[in-house]
Amino acid sequence: MKKGLFLFLILMVALSPKNIFSQTPKTPKVEGRAIWIHPTADLQDMESVKSLVANCKKANINLIIPCMKLYGKVLWDSKKFSGAIPDDFKKKFEQGFDPLKELIAESHKNGIRVHAWLCDFTDEANLPAYKEHPEWAMLNKDGKPTTSEFLTNNTPYFILWMCPAQRKGYTDQWLIPMIEEIVTNYDVDGIHHDYIRYPGDVSPDGYCFCDYCLENFLKYNHLYYECKPDTQIEAVQKLPIWISNWSQDNTIKPANWNKMTRAEKVDFIFKGSSMKGGPADLNYFYYEYRCDQITKFAREAWEAAHKIKPNIQFSAAVFKNPALSGRNIGQRWTDFAPYVDIVMPMAYKSHFAGDLPTFQKFLGEYTRYSNKWCEGVTNISMGIDIAYIYGDIGKPIYDIRKSLKNMKEKKTDEMEAIQKNFKEIHKNLVKVAPALDKEISIGIKNLAEKDTIKLNQIIDSLDAKVAILLTNAPKGFYPEEILTSTIKAVRDGGGKGLVVFCAYDVTRCNLWDALAKAFNEPSIDQDLANPVKGVNINTVRELEKLQKSK
Description:
Layout: H1 2-15, E1 29-30, E2 32-37, H2 39-42, H3 46-58, E3 63-70, E4 73-74, H4 87-94, H5 99-109, E5 113-119, E6 122-123, H6 128-132, E7 160-161, H7 170-185, E8 190-194, H8 211-220, H9 262-271, H10 282-308, E9 313-318, H11 322-329, H12 333-336, E10 342-345, H13 356-374, E11 379-380, E12 382-385, H14 386-389, H15 391-409, H16 415-432, H17 434-445, H18 452-471, H19 480-492, E13 497-501, H20 503-508, H21 512-518, E14 523-524, H22 526-529, H23 537-548
Parallel strand pairs: 1-14, 2-3, 2-13, 3-5, 5-8, 8-9, 9-10, 10-11, 12-13
Antiparallel strand pairs: 3-4, 6-7
């Protein structure tokens, strides 16, 4: 009887809603939540570091990605590459403030990890790498670097792209040593690749045709015998369809290669055939060559960093479609996915057609495809951009400021355009900041002033008030539901991670509370929880304990 009563009491305790088991903390959701940050905006001093990390903790973000190589500028306290450190950062280091070091320390206190972000193959013409080694730059068919190009409206292109293939070159003499220095001197949790590609904005087919690549392209694809470089072998037709004889010996390198100009060699690569008399398919080998050079770098970076810190991680910002980016910029990220722990497709609204609801549908579909492309290989965090998803709200603000500038400098009549754009702003502004709305409205009416001096003062005052909407917007001016519904689109598509660009835009648009609402449950990093990369489960459990203790 006593035994039965005892068992009954045990059962009642187990079923009680207040039993000890019901008090066990819920296991955190497995979802990667990262944010890109610019040190020049977010890490000015210790106060700004603490503010940033506090906001990230509040929003349950578990990975911060600070830009440490901005094109060619070095933003860490480098000893090997001190000549590339800008003066304002040199001053910080001299005063004893190291943004990366302090960010790591403050983040780790709060259970947040840090990946140092490098803009890999981009540099600047006025910095040491190019000054000391101009031969490292990518060249087009005219033998000129990317800085010779122009964009829309005849805007000079300032980014200097460096050749990924050359050895010795930028990759092994400059970029990988940078990664080694960061991993050695800073307690970073990972390295983040950006611009891990060839340039596509100036010319997808235009780079790289430096001397090294033109020769290495032939050798890499074994388009002639090095032991008999002057021998020309013709393919023998053994099968009726000519191209089916591709496996037969066949010298593809032209006999007059060494006498051809750079432009003629490039023309041969795009119009030549892998078999004399066959289709013009040599460009296929050119695209493959570029993809392989990028993958080779990803592997070499991974190997170099892991020799120093075996548990170091890698992440990478990539374009959303690996097939298209492979063809156009050598970034077939499904190839180098094994060498990164998190692939972050930049699924920005600017890369899609249509309005916001259409974009969100497309985003969900790309999330599903991204998971499929990398299933069992690595982890995916979809990248969303604050400035672009709120672009329709921001555009009339920029247009008003442009009109005010024209009124002041060019003396043009912009009243109709300003009033039209303010009408778009007014719809939301009057609800969330009626006082500011009224001040801007009065300022616009005062633009009728005829006195030039007074008019310029009115323009300056009005511009400052309008600029608030771009730099420190009233809460609600940028509706939270735009961000939360975009995040939902990723989740609906099966997304297990998100990365937001960027902290500065979240701050200026007053959206930290919106992020906290979207990420309302603690989460561990998906790449630690996912067994794909073979991470020790004890590491996951330790992070779970850390999150539960907060």
